[in-house]
Amino acid sequence: MQLLKDKIRTSAKITDNRIIQVDNFLNHQLDIALFNEIGKEFKRRFSAKEITKIVTIETSGIAIASITAQYFNNVPVVFAKKHAGLNMNKDVYEAKVFSYTKNQEYLIKISKDYLTPNDKVLIIDDFLASGSALLGLYSLLAQSGAEIAGVGIVIEKTFQEGRKLIEEKGLHLESLAIIDSLQDGQVIFKE
Amino acid sequence: MQLLKDKIRTSAKITDNRIIQVDNFLNHQLDIALFNEIGKEFKRRFSAKEITKIVTIETSGIAIASITAQYFNNVPVVFAKKHAGLNMNKDVYEAKVFSYTKNQEYLIKISKDYLTPNDKVLIIDDFLASGSALLGLYSLLAQSGAEIAGVGIVIEKTFQEGRKLIEEKGLHLESLAIIDSLQDGQVIFKE
């Protein structure tokens, strides 16, 4: 997706030749016009699929998933909680996820009320790198019996093992910008 | 806002005569069609104001703020982080917030890159009850020198002190559903 790649080239900060920080438009300040173009592109790539629900994970996936849902007939968005409040229903699906950007393990949770075996789910997230968050979501969805119709990612880094782990599960994965290398602070996209 | 009140009546769960749980459409599963109506209503109520940015706070404000921004010419959304990652810029505005639903104090943060004295900010959040989260956002914005053009809240509970604290700051506050009482598990809206 050219618009997204251009935005990454002009706005992302690279550190340590492997970390790409996109707080400027994706993870802290949110570029809503760009998110609409991202939503349209996910619809184009998953147009053949019947989708009844979009599932994502706290925090950065929520805005992208919500804008994207508008292009899928306003299907409900459900986000897995990393920091459940005291008011949360106790009857939940849960899975462990390790966050490298926070160097911490989380228990992520989705209430059993919001996933059923009848759901056909599009998973949306901002990043695919190690794949840990996506495998956690995969586990929650497998517990619920819902069907995973596809996985839509905004930015994928090919030099970590995420794609391999997702493809091993037989999932249809679409990433809008695929980064092969961040060596020397340069973003090299996969052709 | 009648559509919202109807949704609260049919879908909210009341506990302890003071806690209203709206995970079904606002805090865990997200009703995107309703969020669009909420966004339109905020635009109607703040139509006289010039807005350059929408500011909210992790987690439940993010989706509402993002959908609402579409009705304000796609202005950027910035969310205060409760759980900053290791990659976050260290040059931040910060404030303490106490969360009653998590019984925990947080340090909330916004990068100085994303708030300037030229910004005219609409604050959006899901709930106003004790007012702690809003006072934290007020502090971040005061530190930045940005102007607060208004505060838009989805659900306000009048039997806690939030409104008083916000109005003492001289802010223009608009709440789309105002709840006077949850006694006996019944939702009584302010007329």
TrEMBL record, chains A, B:
It is found in: Cytoplasm. It catalyses: XMP + diphosphate = xanthine + 5-phospho-alpha-D-ribose 1-diphosphate. Xanthine binds at N27, K157. GO terms for biological process: purine ribonucleoside salvage; xanthine metabolic process; XMP salvage. 5-phospho-alpha-D-ribose 1-diphosphate binds at A129, S130, G131, S132, A133. Pathway: Purine metabolism; XMP biosynthesis via salvage pathway; XMP from xanthine: step 1/1. Keywords: Cytoplasm, Glycosyltransferase, Purine salvage, Transferase. NCBIfam families: PRK09219.1 (NF006671), XPRTase (TIGR01744). Homodimer. Converts the preformed base xanthine, a product of nucleic acid breakdown, to xanthosine 5'-monophosphate (XMP), so it can be reused for RNA or DNA synthesis. This is Xanthine phosphoribosyltransferase.
